[in-house]
Amino acid sequence: MSQKPTKPLSTAEGFICGALAACTAVTFSNPAEVMKTRMQLQGELAKGGGEKVYKNVFDTFGKTWRNEGLKGIQRGLGPAYIYQILLNGSRLGFYEPFRGFFNRILGNPVKEQVVLTSVAAGAVSGAVGASLGNPFFLVKARMQAYSPVLPVGAQHYYKNSYDALRTIWKAERFRGLIRGVDAAVLRTSMGSSVQLPSYNWTKGQIVGAGLLPADSTWTFLASSSVSGACVCLVMQPADTALTRMYNQPTTKLPTGRIVGLLYKNPIDCLWKTLRTEGAFAWYKGSTAHFFRIAPHTIITLTMNDLILGVYSKVRHG
């Protein structure tokens, strides 16, 4: 029997359920995010990719663990929680309202799965979440890149999230907190445009073919596995650009404005990376990214369905 409630969840209820699911996921996926960030930054704008501090994701994990311990592999977890609440709370909570809105505009039934409106709803809801969470993603990326032993890229040392936000605000005001937001929106829109549509499509195919019931945990796992692979494939180049734009050193112009020293925008970052390091540099850390995005997507979407199911039972007695 389906676990769907007779009365649709409100946007606020969807936001909270999505946020809880994402926070559960990031607890497990954050170490892979640390590895990915460091691999994306090593050899930045060096001809041919420069000298490698880290050979691969396993080497990165091993060196980080030996030199920095648990604190090292979980760097940035605090701001990661806040970011996930804002990003996936928005992405999962606003997806259905946006999809229904776009369906109505095109004259389709609100509940109908239409590829165009599903992709658009995913992209827009992701862009909203990325914009809201940008300051915390910025702090998270800089904290994860920092290593007192094997540094790569520009190094930003902060005691904690509050210290990071205060330091950035003091130096750059609001402009500093929204640094890289264009890259964040690009990255998240690309990922969100395929995350839920691919998940819902796969789930529909599995249930429609009679392979598994709609409320089975195995259905959730299979659907989210396919979704995670799609997200990783589509989002990787924009993710590399985002990491580098967040972490780049800054310089103060004669006008007093503080700008990035290396990149003007995400397109400029991708072009310079391509020109100096080659096309494969766009996919630096892609293995670590997959180890992050696949389990993160699987846990997020599976937990979201499970949490929604439990909440619906409680809500309707």
From TrEMBL:
UniProt-listed SUPFAM superfamilies: Mitochondrial carrier
Solcar repeat windows: 9-101, 113-205, 215-310
InterPro entries: MCP_dom_sf, MCP_transmembrane, Mito_Carrier_Antiporter
Subcellular location: Mitochondrion inner membrane
Keyword Membrane among UniProt keywords: yes
Family annotation (Pfam families): Mito_carr
Keywords, alphabetical: Membrane, Mitochondrion, Mitochondrion inner membrane, Repeat, Transmembrane, Transmembrane helix, Transport
Membrane topology: Multi-pass membrane protein
GO CC terms, sorted: mitochondrial inner membrane
Family affiliation: Belongs to the mitochondrial carrier (TC 2.A.29) family.
Name of this protein: Mitochondrial carrier
Protein species of origin: Sistotremastrum suecicum HHB10207 ss-3
